[in-house]
């Protein structure tokens, strides 16, 4: 099983090299990952792919450690 960081790097590299994959990834990320890399994302997980511009930066804020969401899903997992 690939680590999340390795998988992320593979997806980014493929998106840079393959414009059709990049467009599919932006339009339907779950289908793009499954078709290109065989990675299946569960229906219970929402996956969004966005493209940063040269003057943009996206900061993702995870759930608070005190939130019920994190407590309910804190079981260790592999990748996504």
From TrEMBL:
InterPro entries in the record: CN_Hdrase_a/SCN_Hdrase_g_sf (IPR036648), CN_Hdrtase_a/SCN_Hdrlase_g (IPR004232), TOMM_pelo (IPR022513)
Positions of the Nitrile hydratase alpha/Thiocyanate hydrolase gamma domain: 9-61
Pfam families: NHase_alpha
Keywords, in A-Z order: Metal-binding
GO MF annotations, alphabetized: catalytic activity; transition metal ion binding
Protein name: NHLP leader peptide family natural product
Lineage: Bacteria, Bacillati, Bacillota, Bacilli, Bacillales
């Amino acid at each position: 099983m690939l680590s999340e960081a390795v998988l992320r790097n593979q997806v980014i590299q493929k998106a840079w090299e393959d414009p059709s994959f990049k467009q599919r990834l932006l339009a339907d990320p779950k289908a793009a990952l499954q078709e290109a890399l065989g990675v299946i994302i569960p229906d219970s997980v929402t996956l969004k792919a966005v493209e940063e511009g040269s003057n943009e930066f996206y900061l993702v804020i995870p759930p608070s450690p005190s939130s019920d969401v994190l407590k309910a899903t804190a079981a260790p997992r592999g990748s996504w």
